[in-house]
What does this fold into?
Amino acid sequence: MAYLLQLISRHARLCLIVGLAAGLLLPTLAQAMTPWLPQMVAALLTVTALRIGHTAARGAASDLRWGLGAVAVLQLGVPLACLGALTLAGFAQTPAALALVLATSAPAISGSTNLALLLGLDAGRMMQIVVLGTAAFPITVLPILMLSPQIGTFADVFQSASLVLLVILCATALGFGLRATFYASPTKVQIQTLDGASVLAFSVIVIALMAPLNHALRADPLQVALWAVLAFSISYGLQAATLLALRRTALRPVAGPLAIGAGNRNIALFLVALPTETLAPVLIFIGCWQLPMYLTPILLPKLYTKVLQDG
It folds into this structure.
């Protein structure tokens, strides 16, 4: 088993592609896995925390000022700016506008730490952004809900965000406890094994996340293509803009994790918080949103390397 996980670690990007392909080509499997998404998310968080360890995360939490400020900009400033621009342009009530607001107001996905590991960035800092973003979400989303009532009520989203935060904290505590107990001073081989377990969990969960795309892809591929273009534009546009904006600032050391957090948001949070009829116009987008996120470590490593090295 350890050898298999080490093999997966060495071929991490290929495993992500296999997960995406399985989600698209095996609709029955994807549909069967969908009810287990909450459990899979919790397992992914536990494995990720086990890989990172409490020592790295504690070091990353030593300065909250930049983290809280970044969360405020990403989850409040960006969606409000987008909503304002869309309102002025007369597009605020369109499905594309709803997709953009949801994508920019959500916190970073729990798998962001896995993306950071694959890109060779500071996963401890990335975990800090995930936890802070999720904790602040019930507050940062309030103005968005007030200005965009079609998204839903604050009570619905607050309840969902609180539950997600609880899951994150419990899973993280379990992962840290396992790390301290069994891998207090891991060897290089053990680190590679843990990397493999993290990649495997990340690759499996995408199969279920791709379920909404299966029917739409067969019924109206052009519509799926258009939503996919929007998803890639938002995700990669936010990542590139964040990297370029921070590369010559005091936040340059955390520009990479912040860019990942900016372009890889947990829209799935709204799936359990909002009524089905509210999200019906953007369900295909939510499925397409997984594509740029899971392809980030495959398509964008040169961007991260060039910007962060050249500065």
About this structure: The CA atoms of residues 100 and 234 lie 7 Å apart. The chain has a mean pLDDT of 86. The chain has one domain: 2-310. The chain has 19 helices and no strands.
